[in-house]
Amino acid sequence: MSSRRQAAVKDRPSGAGRRTRVLMASGCAFVVLAGLGIPVAAQEGKRPTGETYQQILDRLGDGMLENIVIRGEHNARTDSRAKKRFYTDLSTMSDYPAYQPRQQVSGTIKVSGLYLHDGLIKDEWIKEFQRFQPGAKVVISQGGTVASGKVHIQTGPRINDRLREASEYERATGQRIFEIDWATGSYDVPGWSPGFVIFVHKDNPIAHMTVEQLDGIFAGARTGGWKGTTWDPSAARGPEKNLRTWGQLGLTGEWANQPIHIYGRPLKYNIQLGFERKVFNGGDIWNENTMEYSHEMNADGTRYTSSVEMVKDMAADKYGIVFSDMGSAIPGVRAVPIGATDAGPFVPISRESLRDRSYPLFIEQWAEARVAPGKPLDPLVKEFLTFMLSREGQDAIQRDGKWFPIPAARAREMIAKLDELGAPVDPRELGLQTEMIAPKKWDGESPDETGKVNPKQAYYKKRFDLSDLPAYTPAAQVSGSIRMPASGQLMGSTVGQALIDAFKRHQPGITFDLKDGDLNAGDVDLSMGRKWTTYFAGEFYDFQMKHERSPREIRVATGSFDVSGWSPAMAILVNRSNPIKGLTIKQLDGIFGGPRRGGWVSTTWRRQAGRSAEQNIRSWSELGIGNICASKPIDVVVPPLKYHIMSVFERKVLVGGNIWNDDAHEVPLALNPDKSRTVPNADRARMVGNDPCAITFAGAGFSNDKTRLVPIAAADGQPFVLPTLETVRNGSYPLGLEVYAYADQLPDQPLDPKLKEFLRFVLSREGQDIIQRDGKWLPLTGAMARAELKKLDAIIPQVKAPPVAPKKAAAASEGAN
Question: Is the pLDDT of residue 408 over 70?
Fold first, then answer.
């Protein structure tokens, strides 16, 4: 296995080691049955099919095969660059401060960074720092996070751009992240953070652009943006600043009325987050006409490389624009000079303009460390960060020949920052967004915004007839310990302990070890709660990349009907005056979503999930509504796009797509003047109640006397169904949520017998009765339970990547990440 795959997941155990990947005996490409890793057939064409998310998943699989192929080729390419010097012209470093220890330190300093570890810098830094600090030992590893405490300094992409990781850091430490930037990315070395380049067609006469104009082109209107984990309303801008034609940029003649065609990468990619910070002021609403290009697996088992293919396609489109990198430059396109403001200067990208950062779309390399509020940096950490920013540390960067040193003035600025004390924190603000962005795996899809739900209380007294569920009869007597998290809704409610006690009466040889931990890291055997996030860089994907197999996912319950925080069904709310009788899922897609080239179906990009702009629904008249809103746009009100619940809605409604209606109005969790928390579901419902042309989704319990719930149909021709206890439980209401159990199962081996028996009990009549008596989650139907029971018997074969015949890579492909 490539050394890079060993660090694909943070904090990978050191014993993971290298493994040889088994190749297919035949040369054909195949896909994988959903969740099972079973090769079944050659991949079909990648055109949009109009299928649902589940239909595509059932037909094409969970992405394990594609991810092995894509990641394997990525690893091979980046490994081939790691020890290579691309830039050999060295600058004098006399204006950088030489490293002068403020004090002699001792102990071990642990630093993480995949590209730092694999490049040429590591050995030079270790040798030089220990020359100045002989009592110190430096260990630089591929992976490890400051949140986990396994390293003192974490380097790589900016944590504050990745809100899930930043939120988890705040939750783990009770601190704000301390960060400095210590290098500038490359000019044209894929993987080493090449600067953003704006390409247009070679015949496009545009002379230059500003960052604000790029915002107008690539983004949509917004109500705010992200500054770390803080929602900043000052980043808001209106639709009047949208730029959608070349004429709005000053072009005349044949160009004046031509729409701007935008090419880009999937909005879940980390690279997009840096662009949002640089260009959108932290906003996350993109122009809904953005055509996303993802890495994909070709039919012959090779990788379709997004950065290459999107620039190639844009080169054939006279009215196109794309942000990419110089490693993807080809004949037929032209890089546009960029100005930070209208006043200029307008700077073309070059090695020199990246070195001095006069080109505004450079990418930084970041280092993060822990600093307690009001406290100084740990002396050993401070000394090593000072060294990184010094003449010696920066000279090692330029001799590596990929990243550029930061400007000397910036190095001094960052060194001065090392004297700062840890940022003060208000416990009511610190981590305010954490549960919205990154709810724990063993909790619900979103937190209880009301703060009033008692986890021990039964909110539903109704008892469903469970006689169609199979009674539990032990298939075998098992023994041993089952490790499960001690926290979360399972154990916080009455369900967890009741299941344990009842199961032990049937299986007295079983004990339960309750201690919080992560299945990905092997800390627990079983985890129950919300559905794991699946798209690129989600938890399901992390598991796949770490173990080269998929986790076993078993549905064990249905979420609630309307209990806040307990995965309540997503209800569609409109103003009470709105006469709409019902909406289909595809109509909701048309209202809330935008046109898309594809979507994330499980952990891989599927173009079959795409749809055209013709399916947009932007006015109520398109739905046959003739009231005062007939000629007005639909006012779409949603949570911020970075919230976890949005990925759930994307899966349920947008077929895994990430493109939203670019007029959507985001309503975040915030603090009231008295520092109490707002209730975003209620706030959105209130907005809809005051706006006859608005629509939102929220928990059914948040509807008010000025709103009403809209019946929803799963597909054209099917009945429109309102959410109720019964319709959510039996699945006829299509926007109900689920509760899942996750376990590991080795390829070609049965599921651990004790886990299988416990899950059989959970899925039995007795287990589901325990769930319904708790009065929050809803029990499965007999048909649902039997479908999940069948999964427990499945033997999952090893997913095998197809062999690829050696071939010469084209220059552009070789340079692409």
Answer: yes
